[in-house]
Protein backbone atom coordinates (compact mmCIF):
# COMPACT_ATOMS: atom_id res chain seq x y z
CA UNK A 1 0.00 0.00 0.00
CA UNK A 2 2.97 2.33 0.55
CA UNK A 3 3.84 2.07 -3.15
CA UNK A 4 0.23 2.81 -4.08
CA UNK A 5 0.25 5.90 -1.87
CA UNK A 6 3.51 7.11 -3.41
CA UNK A 7 2.09 6.66 -6.94
CA UNK A 8 -1.12 8.51 -6.09
CA UNK A 9 0.97 11.45 -4.89
CA UNK A 10 2.59 11.81 -8.31
CA UNK A 11 1.47 14.60 -10.65
CA UNK A 12 1.06 12.17 -13.55
CA UNK A 13 -1.07 9.03 -13.33
CA UNK A 14 -1.48 5.99 -15.60
CA UNK A 15 -5.20 6.75 -15.76
CA UNK A 16 -4.54 10.12 -17.44
CA UNK A 17 -5.25 10.63 -21.14
CA UNK A 18 -3.56 13.88 -22.17
CA UNK A 19 -4.95 15.90 -25.07
CA UNK A 20 -3.24 19.26 -25.50
CA UNK A 21 -0.43 21.58 -24.41
CA UNK A 22 -0.15 25.37 -24.28
CA UNK A 23 2.32 27.80 -22.72
CA UNK A 24 2.92 31.47 -22.03
CA UNK A 25 6.28 33.05 -21.24
CA UNK A 26 6.49 31.45 -17.80
CA UNK A 27 4.15 28.47 -17.55
CA UNK A 28 3.32 25.31 -19.48
CA UNK A 29 -0.12 23.70 -19.17
CA UNK A 30 -1.18 20.17 -20.13
CA UNK A 31 -4.88 19.18 -20.15
CA UNK A 32 -6.57 15.79 -20.41
CA UNK A 33 -9.55 13.71 -19.43
CA UNK A 34 -11.44 13.70 -16.12
CA UNK A 35 -10.60 17.32 -15.31
CA UNK A 36 -6.84 16.79 -15.29
CA UNK A 37 -4.72 19.96 -15.60
CA UNK A 38 -0.96 19.92 -15.09
CA UNK A 39 1.08 23.12 -14.83
CA UNK A 40 4.83 23.66 -14.74
CA UNK A 41 7.33 26.50 -14.70
CA UNK A 42 10.26 24.41 -15.88
CA UNK A 43 8.80 21.52 -17.89
CA UNK A 44 10.23 19.04 -15.39
CA UNK A 45 8.18 19.40 -12.21
CA UNK A 46 4.41 19.54 -12.47
CA UNK A 47 1.48 20.55 -10.29
CA UNK A 48 -1.68 18.46 -10.64
CA UNK A 49 -5.17 19.99 -10.48
CA UNK A 50 -8.52 18.19 -10.88
CA UNK A 51 -11.27 20.60 -11.88
CA UNK A 52 -14.82 20.42 -10.51
CA UNK A 53 -17.07 18.18 -12.57
CA UNK A 54 -14.04 16.45 -14.10
CA UNK A 55 -14.53 17.85 -17.63
CA UNK A 56 -12.93 16.10 -20.59
CA UNK A 57 -10.68 18.60 -22.34
CA UNK A 58 -10.29 18.84 -26.11
CA UNK A 59 -7.93 21.78 -26.57
CA UNK A 60 -6.13 24.63 -24.81
CA UNK A 61 -4.56 27.90 -25.97
CA UNK A 62 -2.78 30.99 -24.64
CA UNK A 63 -4.06 34.54 -25.08
CA UNK A 64 -1.97 37.70 -25.58
CA UNK A 65 -2.64 38.67 -21.94
CA UNK A 66 -0.90 35.40 -20.93
CA UNK A 67 -4.12 33.79 -19.66
CA UNK A 68 -5.08 30.26 -20.69
CA UNK A 69 -8.38 29.18 -22.23
CA UNK A 70 -9.36 25.52 -22.60
CA UNK A 71 -12.34 23.85 -24.27
CA UNK A 72 -14.07 20.85 -22.71
CA UNK A 73 -16.36 18.36 -24.42
CA UNK A 74 -19.43 19.75 -22.61
CA UNK A 75 -19.07 23.09 -24.48
CA UNK A 76 -17.50 24.97 -21.58
CA UNK A 77 -14.51 27.26 -21.82
CA UNK A 78 -12.26 27.12 -18.79
CA UNK A 79 -10.23 30.25 -18.08
CA UNK A 80 -7.08 30.49 -15.98
CA UNK A 81 -4.71 33.21 -14.87
CA UNK A 82 -1.15 33.06 -16.28
CA UNK A 83 -0.13 30.69 -13.48
CA UNK A 84 -2.30 27.94 -15.00
CA UNK A 85 -3.56 26.59 -11.70
CA UNK A 86 -6.83 28.47 -11.04
CA UNK A 87 -9.64 27.76 -13.50
CA UNK A 88 -13.22 28.99 -13.90
CA UNK A 89 -15.81 27.69 -16.41
CA UNK A 90 -17.90 29.68 -18.88
CA UNK A 91 -20.76 27.95 -20.71
CA UNK A 92 -20.90 28.50 -24.47
CA UNK A 93 -24.53 28.61 -25.56
CA UNK A 94 -24.44 26.56 -28.75
CA UNK A 95 -26.43 23.59 -29.98
CA UNK A 96 -23.41 22.38 -31.94
CA UNK A 97 -20.65 20.21 -30.52
CA UNK A 98 -17.55 22.38 -30.23
CA UNK A 99 -14.22 20.77 -31.06
CA UNK A 100 -11.46 23.39 -31.13
CA UNK A 101 -10.43 26.68 -29.52
CA UNK A 102 -8.05 29.49 -30.42
CA UNK A 103 -7.17 32.91 -29.02
CA UNK A 104 -6.37 35.32 -31.84
CA UNK A 105 -3.54 37.88 -31.63
CA UNK A 106 -6.08 40.64 -30.84
CA UNK A 107 -7.34 38.66 -27.82
CA UNK A 108 -10.63 37.51 -29.33
CA UNK A 109 -11.72 34.00 -28.34
CA UNK A 110 -12.69 31.55 -31.09
CA UNK A 111 -14.36 28.13 -30.90
CA UNK A 112 -15.63 25.98 -33.74
CA UNK A 113 -17.29 22.63 -34.32
CA UNK A 114 -20.41 21.02 -35.73
CA UNK A 115 -22.34 22.27 -38.78
CA UNK A 116 -19.25 24.26 -39.87
CA UNK A 117 -19.93 26.71 -37.03
CA UNK A 118 -17.54 29.42 -35.83
CA UNK A 119 -18.20 31.36 -32.61
CA UNK A 120 -16.20 34.36 -31.42
CA UNK A 121 -16.17 36.52 -28.31
CA UNK A 122 -14.45 39.88 -27.87
CA UNK A 123 -15.57 40.27 -24.22
CA UNK A 124 -14.03 37.15 -22.66
CA UNK A 125 -16.98 34.87 -23.18
CA UNK A 126 -19.80 37.13 -22.01
CA UNK A 127 -21.35 37.31 -25.49
CA UNK A 128 -20.80 35.45 -28.73
CA UNK A 129 -21.10 36.06 -32.45
CA UNK A 130 -21.92 33.06 -34.63
CA UNK A 131 -21.02 32.31 -38.23
CA UNK A 132 -21.63 29.13 -40.22
CA UNK A 133 -20.85 27.90 -43.70
CA UNK A 134 -24.20 26.05 -43.67
CA UNK A 135 -22.33 22.81 -44.34
CA UNK A 136 -22.97 19.66 -42.30
CA UNK A 137 -19.28 19.27 -41.48
CA UNK A 138 -17.31 19.38 -38.22
CA UNK A 139 -14.58 21.99 -37.91
CA UNK A 140 -11.68 20.05 -36.38
CA UNK A 141 -9.09 22.81 -36.02
CA UNK A 142 -8.93 26.60 -36.29
CA UNK A 143 -5.77 28.72 -35.95
CA UNK A 144 -5.30 32.46 -36.35
CA UNK A 145 -2.01 33.27 -38.05
CA UNK A 146 -2.50 37.02 -37.60
CA UNK A 147 -5.29 39.35 -36.53
CA UNK A 148 -6.81 39.11 -40.00
CA UNK A 149 -5.78 35.70 -41.35
CA UNK A 150 -6.80 32.26 -40.08
CA UNK A 151 -7.15 28.72 -41.40
CA UNK A 152 -9.51 25.92 -40.42
CA UNK A 153 -9.72 22.26 -41.33
CA UNK A 154 -12.95 20.30 -41.38
CA UNK A 155 -14.69 17.00 -41.98
CA UNK A 156 -14.95 15.77 -45.60
CA UNK A 157 -11.57 17.36 -46.36
CA UNK A 158 -12.76 20.97 -46.25
CA UNK A 159 -10.10 23.65 -45.96
CA UNK A 160 -11.46 27.04 -44.86
CA UNK A 161 -9.81 30.46 -44.61
CA UNK A 162 -10.55 34.00 -43.52
CA UNK A 163 -8.66 37.15 -44.45
CA UNK A 164 -10.83 39.68 -42.62
CA UNK A 165 -10.45 38.64 -38.99
CA UNK A 166 -13.19 36.01 -39.12
CA UNK A 167 -15.99 38.25 -40.36
CA UNK A 168 -16.31 35.94 -43.36
CA UNK A 169 -15.03 32.41 -44.00
CA UNK A 170 -14.59 30.74 -47.39
CA UNK A 171 -13.92 27.16 -48.45
CA UNK A 172 -10.55 27.43 -50.17
CA UNK A 173 -10.17 23.80 -51.22
CA UNK A 174 -10.74 20.13 -50.44
CA UNK A 175 -8.31 17.44 -49.36
CA UNK A 176 -8.23 14.18 -51.36
CA UNK A 177 -10.89 11.50 -50.81
CA UNK A 178 -12.81 13.55 -48.21
CA UNK A 179 -9.83 13.16 -45.87
CA UNK A 180 -10.67 13.69 -42.17
CA UNK A 181 -7.88 15.80 -40.64
CA UNK A 182 -6.88 15.19 -37.04
CA UNK A 183 -3.80 17.43 -37.10
CA UNK A 184 -2.91 20.59 -38.98
CA UNK A 185 0.03 22.99 -39.10
CA UNK A 186 0.17 26.09 -41.32
CA UNK A 187 2.90 28.68 -41.74
CA UNK A 188 0.55 30.88 -43.80
CA UNK A 189 -2.82 30.67 -45.50
CA UNK A 190 -0.99 29.27 -48.53
CA UNK A 191 1.34 26.68 -46.96
CA UNK A 192 0.59 23.90 -44.53
CA UNK A 193 0.29 20.23 -43.60
CA UNK A 194 -2.61 18.03 -42.47
CA UNK A 195 -2.60 14.46 -41.16
CA UNK A 196 -5.04 11.86 -39.90
CA UNK A 197 -5.94 8.34 -38.87
CA UNK A 198 -4.61 6.49 -41.90
CA UNK A 199 -1.13 7.92 -41.41
CA UNK A 200 -1.30 10.07 -44.55
CA UNK A 201 0.33 13.51 -44.41
CA UNK A 202 -0.75 16.00 -47.06
CA UNK A 203 1.01 19.26 -47.97
CA UNK A 204 -0.35 22.32 -49.77
CA UNK A 205 1.39 25.49 -50.93
CA UNK A 206 -1.58 27.09 -52.68
CA UNK A 207 -4.22 27.49 -49.96
CA UNK A 208 -5.62 24.00 -50.37
CA UNK A 209 -6.31 24.15 -54.09
CA UNK A 210 -4.04 21.12 -54.54
CA UNK A 211 -2.54 18.68 -52.05
CA UNK A 212 0.57 16.51 -52.24
CA UNK A 213 0.85 13.30 -50.20
CA UNK A 214 4.30 13.28 -48.65
CA UNK A 215 6.32 10.10 -48.25
CA UNK A 216 6.61 8.64 -44.73
CA UNK A 217 8.40 5.56 -43.41
CA UNK A 218 5.54 4.95 -40.96
CA UNK A 219 1.83 4.27 -41.39
CA UNK A 220 0.69 5.05 -37.84
CA UNK A 221 -2.15 7.57 -37.37
CA UNK A 222 -0.88 11.12 -36.82
CA UNK A 223 -2.49 13.32 -34.16
CA UNK A 224 -0.31 16.43 -33.83
CA UNK A 225 2.41 18.59 -35.40
CA UNK A 226 5.07 20.63 -33.60
CA UNK A 227 7.51 23.07 -35.21
CA UNK A 228 10.89 23.77 -33.60
CA UNK A 229 13.25 26.31 -35.16
CA UNK A 230 11.97 25.61 -38.65
CA UNK A 231 11.93 21.82 -38.23
CA UNK A 232 8.55 20.08 -38.22
CA UNK A 233 7.76 17.02 -36.09
CA UNK A 234 4.65 14.81 -36.14
CA UNK A 235 3.27 12.76 -33.24
CA UNK A 236 1.40 9.53 -33.77
CA UNK A 237 0.05 6.28 -32.45
CA UNK A 238 2.23 3.74 -30.64
CA UNK A 239 4.27 6.63 -29.17
CA UNK A 240 5.79 7.35 -32.59
CA UNK A 241 7.52 10.63 -33.51
CA UNK A 242 8.34 11.62 -37.10
CA UNK A 243 10.55 14.42 -38.44
CA UNK A 244 10.21 16.16 -41.80
CA UNK A 245 13.46 15.97 -43.77
CA UNK A 246 13.19 17.55 -47.17
CA UNK A 247 9.93 16.19 -48.58
CA UNK A 248 9.96 12.98 -46.52
CA UNK A 249 8.90 12.05 -43.01
CA UNK A 250 11.46 10.00 -41.10
CA UNK A 251 10.84 8.10 -37.87
CA UNK A 252 12.97 9.51 -35.05
CA UNK A 253 11.10 7.84 -32.18
CA UNK A 254 9.96 4.38 -33.33
CA UNK A 255 6.83 2.67 -32.07
CA UNK A 256 7.53 1.85 -28.44
CA UNK A 257 4.14 1.43 -26.72
CA UNK A 258 0.50 0.86 -27.77
CA UNK A 259 -0.36 4.42 -26.74
CA UNK A 260 -1.10 7.55 -28.72
CA UNK A 261 0.83 10.82 -28.54
CA UNK A 262 -1.48 13.80 -29.02
CA UNK A 263 0.00 16.79 -27.13
CA UNK A 264 3.25 18.57 -28.02
CA UNK A 265 5.01 21.71 -26.82
CA UNK A 266 8.47 23.25 -27.24
CA UNK A 267 9.23 24.69 -23.79
CA UNK A 268 12.51 25.57 -22.05
CA UNK A 269 14.52 24.19 -24.99
CA UNK A 270 12.84 20.79 -24.76
CA UNK A 271 10.17 19.06 -26.81
CA UNK A 272 7.47 17.86 -24.42
CA UNK A 273 5.10 15.19 -25.75
CA UNK A 274 2.22 13.43 -23.99
CA UNK A 275 -0.68 11.11 -24.70
CA UNK A 276 -2.68 8.19 -23.41
CA UNK A 277 -2.28 6.26 -20.15
CA UNK A 278 -0.05 8.89 -18.60
CA UNK A 279 2.52 8.79 -21.40
CA UNK A 280 4.89 11.76 -21.08
CA UNK A 281 8.31 12.25 -22.67
CA UNK A 282 10.86 15.05 -22.62
CA UNK A 283 12.90 15.03 -25.83
CA UNK A 284 16.03 16.87 -26.92
CA UNK A 285 15.22 17.73 -30.55
CA UNK A 286 18.77 18.99 -31.22
CA UNK A 287 20.46 15.66 -30.49
CA UNK A 288 21.96 13.79 -33.44
CA UNK A 289 19.62 10.94 -32.56
CA UNK A 290 16.41 11.67 -30.74
CA UNK A 291 17.18 11.68 -27.01
CA UNK A 292 14.42 10.83 -24.57
CA UNK A 293 15.33 12.23 -21.16
CA UNK A 294 12.51 10.64 -19.18
CA UNK A 295 9.31 8.74 -19.72
CA UNK A 296 6.24 8.41 -17.55
CA UNK A 297 4.03 5.43 -18.29
Automatic annotation (TrEMBL):
The keyword Hydrolase applies. The keyword Hydrolase applies. Gene3D superfamilies: YVTN repeat-like/Quinoprotein amine dehydrogenase (2.130.10.10). Residues 127-221 form the Photosynthesis system II assembly factor Ycf48/Hcf136-like domain. Pfam families: PSII_BNR. SUPFAM superfamilies: Oligoxyloglucan reducing end-specific cellobiohydrolase (SSF110296). InterPro entries: PSII_CF48-like_dom (IPR028203), WD40/YVTN_repeat-like_dom_sf (IPR015943). GO terms for molecular function: hydrolase activity. One of its GO terms (cellular component) is photosystem II. Keywords: Hydrolase, Photosynthesis, Photosystem II. One of its GO terms (biological process) is photosynthesis. This is Glycosyl hydrolase, BNR repeat. It comes from Paraglaciecola polaris LMG 21857.
